[in-house]
């Protein structure tokens, strides 16, 4: 029997005001049972519906009242029949009283488990809470709800209240709706109850907790601020990727009459010698090795065990830093939450004070973590304060923990800054306005509406489809894979209604950015296509790729076949040749060649200059080289060259060049222009 077995009672409003959303309620409730059949097959689930014409429950027979409440299915272990029953919920004709349904559900659980049984018991109410609640015989409705809440706590029951609103509440009686919201809020204050309001079918899918995962600590110990100052803390997982259930090998060779057959397949591996394939190699003759150059270095298990780093279990503070120094893209893995030991008042106060101080100073903590003894690795992470915003809140102050990368984990890909591109490459005012309107149109949180695709209310469509497919295959093995549910499509695709309503905005954005097809030519006929350098007139640049010393009449129309060595920067059109070579994208070596050739040309101009006659052209080339190095994120190439050029001038008594460059305000590439400077 499962240790975390749960008994769940679904309290479903099927009254007339809920008819429009009942198809979605059927889907989400049947999905809940499908998941339990995989992950929690010993759980028990019962179904109570209210808002029906008929009445069928034990309390009505015993004490009277509790009309229009039907126990559709008593609590028992989940099975396929329950999935079918939830696919076909009755449509009621009367207004439903959710308090009556809660009391009937509590009565079932109390009679089954009593006061002493501490098994997990949960009620799940799904309603729009738009219908009036009957007056209590004794006291007010508020008094009645408080009494019910006290009994829930006494018997260890939890409750989820999912209130489906949205378009349903448009014509509702506001007084009744506010009163019902007030009563439901009492449950969330007095008990371990969760109250959620949803407006869309997608949010409904995510609001119901379909899988019960018990919180398990990954660390219990000290947060060491110093060797003499420690705080008792617990660490839990806050987010963790939910993966598809593991597929197992299955055999149908077991006799059909064997009811206890597991049908599992056992896999054994056997290693054989390369020289003699008929000879098996026993474990004591096998050893693992690592490639080191051309050779393989064998390492015995005992040696590898000695090499392993074996730190002691601990969480140690290394220091604090500004929150702005930790970029969002540094976060590597699942998020953990670090809280004070729940039973330690001094630890709770210490964690709260530390979290509030860090938030006030806008600081984060860098910590070194080893979650368990024998762990083969150490992680360095960041603690971000999570301070409760509400006064007298039941939520304790805590920290979120994220793993930070080491140097070996960081991937550096340098791209030129858009700010350094020419003005002709920047978006104009019309284009920027079109982009702004597109972003506003696709805002997921428009004013007055529920934010769409909130992570806590958005189910994984891949998992949901898998569970649906598994349920279909369990009854019809040859059935085709069912299509993706329309509700789940809204997660994976843009809203068609929103796109059609804002077609003019989309068309304006499309017109603002002209798109041209880039045909993919065959390899044998591929030509290097490049834009004409900015500033050239019609007809210029045609011979910019000519090697120096070439003659008129030579053909340079097809340069795709020209080798790296045969193409150089010429004397006549030095800047244009340099720009053309820098713009080539048929090989990474062209950038380095262009920079190297340009440096050589500049040196030639300086050395062959007479009384500074080549200085203006050398300056023009230096400006082009500087711009190219900024665009390609090669600031070191230019800065080192300019230093070298100045030293060369000083050594050869060419001070006039340095003065000329200074007068033209030619400077080194700064860090604001290129981050690597």
TrEMBL record:
One of its GO terms (cellular component) is Ku70:Ku80 complex. Its EC number is 3.6.4.12. Residues 524-557 are annotated as: Disordered. It is found in: Nucleus. Keywords: ATP-binding, DNA damage, DNA recombination, DNA repair, DNA-binding, Helicase, Hydrolase, Nucleotide-binding, Nucleus. Residues 528-540 have a biased composition (Basic and acidic residues). One of its GO terms (molecular function) is ATP binding. Single-stranded DNA-dependent ATP-dependent helicase. This is ATP-dependent DNA helicase 2 subunit KU80. It comes from the Eukaryota. It catalyses: ATP + H2O = ADP + phosphate + H(+). Gene3D superfamilies: 1.10.1600.10, 2.40.290.10, Ku, C-terminal domain (1.25.40.240), von Willebrand factor, type A domain (3.40.50.410). Residues 278-421 form the Ku domain. GO terms for biological process: DNA recombination; double-strand break repair via nonhomologous end joining; telomere maintenance. It comes from Fagus sylvatica (Beechnut). Coiled coil: none annotated. Belongs to the ku80 family.
């Amino acid at each position: 029997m499962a240790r975390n077995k749960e008994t769940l009672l679904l309290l479903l409003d099927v009254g007339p005001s809920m008819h429009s959303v009942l198809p979605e309620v059927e889907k989400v409730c049947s999905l809940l049972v499908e998941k339990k059949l995989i992950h929690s097959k010993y759980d028990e689930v019962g179904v109570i519906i209210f808002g029906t014409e008929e009445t069928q429950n034990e309390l009505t027979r015993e004490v009277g009242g509790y009309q229009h409440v039907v126990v559709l299915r008593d609590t028992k272990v989940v099975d396929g029949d329950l999935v079918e029953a939830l696919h076909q919920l009755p449509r009621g004709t009367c207004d439903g009283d959710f308090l009556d349904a809660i009391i009937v559900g509590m009565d079932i659980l109390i009679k089954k488990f009593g006061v002493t049984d501490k098994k997990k018991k949960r009620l799940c109410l799904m309603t729009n809470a738009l219908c009036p609640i009957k007056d209590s015989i004794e006291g007010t409705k508020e008094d009645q709800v408080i009494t019910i809440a006290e009994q829930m706590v006494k018997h260890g029951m939890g409750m989820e209240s999912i209130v489906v609103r949205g378009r349903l509440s448009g014509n509702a009686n506001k007084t009744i709706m506010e009163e019902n919201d007030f009563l439901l809020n009492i449950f969330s204050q007095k008990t371990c109850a969760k109250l959620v309001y949803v407006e869309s079918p997608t949010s409904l899918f995510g609001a119901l907790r379909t899988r019960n995962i018990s919180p398990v600590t990954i660390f219990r110990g000290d947060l060491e601020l110093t060797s003499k100052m420690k705080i008792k803390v617990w660490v839990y997982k806050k987010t963790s990727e939910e993966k598809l259930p593991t597929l197992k090998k299955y055999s149908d060779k077991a006799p059909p009459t064997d009811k206890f057959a597991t049908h599992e397949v056992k896999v054994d591996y056997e290693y054989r010698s390369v020289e003699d394939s008929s000879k098996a190699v026993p474990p004591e003759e096998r050893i693992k090795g690592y490639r080191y150059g051309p050779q393989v270095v064998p390492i015995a298990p005992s040696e590898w065990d000695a090499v392993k780093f074996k730190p002691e279990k601990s969480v140690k503070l290394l220091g604090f830093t500004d929150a702005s120094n930790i970029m969002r893209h540094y976060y590597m893995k699942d998020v953990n939450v670090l809280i004070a030991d729940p039973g330690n008042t001094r630890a709770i106060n210490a964690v709260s004070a530390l979290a509030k101080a860090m938030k006030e100073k806008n600081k984060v903590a860098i910590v070194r973590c080893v979650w368990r003894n024998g762990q083969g690795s150490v992680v360095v992470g960041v603690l971000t304060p999570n301070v409760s915003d509400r006064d007298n809140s039941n939520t304790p102050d805590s920290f979120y923990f994220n793993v930070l990368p080491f140097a070996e984990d960081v991937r550096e890909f340098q791209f030129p800054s858009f700010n350094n591109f020419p003005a002709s490459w920047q978006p104009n005012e019309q284009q920027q306005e079109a982009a702004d309107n597109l972003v506003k149109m696709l805002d997921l949180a428009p004013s007055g509406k529920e934010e769409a695709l909130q992570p806590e209310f958005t189910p994984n469509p891949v998992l949901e489809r898998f569970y649906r497919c598994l349920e279909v295959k369990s009854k019809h093995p040859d059935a085709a894979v069912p299509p993706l549910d329309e509700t789940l499509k809204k997660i994976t695709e843009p809203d068609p209604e929103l796109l059609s309503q804002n077609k003019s905005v989309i068309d304006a954005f499309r017109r603002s950015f002209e798109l041209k097809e880039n045909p993919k030519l065959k390899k044998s006929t591929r030509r290097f296509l490049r834009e004409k350098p900015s500033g050239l007139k019609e007809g210029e640049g045609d011979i910019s790729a000519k090697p120096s010393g070439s003659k008129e009449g030579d053909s340079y129309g097809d340069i795709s076949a020209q080798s790296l060595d045969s193409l150089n920067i010429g004397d006549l059109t030095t800047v244009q040749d340099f720009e053309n070579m820098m713009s080539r994208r048929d090989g990474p070596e062209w950038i380095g060649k262009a920079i190297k050739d340009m440096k050589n040309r500049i040196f030639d101009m300086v050395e062959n200059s007479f009384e500074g006659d080549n200085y203006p052209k050398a300056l023009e080339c230096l400006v082009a080289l500087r711009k190219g190095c900024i665009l390609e994120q090669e600031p070191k190439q230019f800065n080192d060259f300019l230093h070298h050029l100045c030293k060369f001038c000083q050594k050869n008594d060419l001070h006039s060049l340095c003065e000329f460059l200074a007068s033209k305000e030619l400077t080194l590439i700064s860090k604001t222009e290129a981050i690597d400077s």
